[in-house]
Amino acid sequence: MRIYAIGDIHGRADLLAELLSRIDTDLQANPIERALHVFLGDYIDRGANSAAVIDLLIDRATTQELICLKGNHELYLAEFLADPSILTVWAQYGALPTLTSYGVEPIFSASAKEQEKLAVELGKALPKSHMEFFAGLKPSLTFGDFFFVHAGVRPGIPLEKQVPQDLLWIRDDFLLHEGAFEKIVVHGHTPVREADIRPNRINIDTGAYATGRLTCLRLERDELLLM
């Protein structure tokens, strides 16, 4: 078995397409019985083509085995549809390009009524397949010696008892912890210039939307390779 773990995409459909092509090349050169793609969340916001990213992932799932985890940005989208008043907060984290990618024209400093209208328009613009994609996102994944999650875990808490708030949002308490976890945690959420490989965790969020670098971690047997 081989795992391809992919960091935060943030609307960079161009980088995702390039990475999937590299994975295909690797699979052709090195065939294996089972290859699993694990995406660590934050597919949308900041970058210009969030809708296209979701299309690519949905299409990829027709030919490859994918497990897509939830990121905090996907949580924002769901919360906006239920409570349009959070648009002001969500906009600070790159919501406007996401709205535009779905054909919804964002309004700066939108009134409460305009926020409600935007939420309705987005709800109508989201294809059913995209709604199903967002609804099907997983909180975390365990395989072998690795625990895959968007943001990280709370030190001292068993992995099976971690709460969604930490899985999606945690930073310093997790990042500054130098002790071992039950498994090596593979995560994103906090951008780094280069993939950060440590004894207890591996951060593969290389800030794709700003740096143009979308990182994939290839895991097979006892080998670890960055793509």
Commentary on this structure:
The chain has 227 residues and is an alpha/beta fold. It has a single domain, classed as 4-Layer Sandwich (Purple Acid Phosphatase, chain A, domain 2), CATH 3.60.21.10. The protein contains ten helices and ten strands. Helix 1 packs parallel to helix 2. The two termini are 17 Å apart. The model has no long low-confidence stretch (mean pLDDT 97).
Which SSEs are present, and which pair or pack?
Elements: E1 2-6, H1 13-29, E2 35-39, H2 50-60, E3 65-68, H3 72-82, H4 87-91, H5 95-101, H6 112-125, H7 128-135, E4 140-143, E5 146-149, H8 164-169, H9 172-175, E6 184-187, E7 196-197, E8 201-203, H10 208-211, E9 216-220, E10 223-226
Parallel strand pairs: 1-2, 2-3, 5-6, 6-8
Antiparallel strand pairs: 1-9, 4-5, 7-8, 9-10
Helix pairs in contact: 1-2
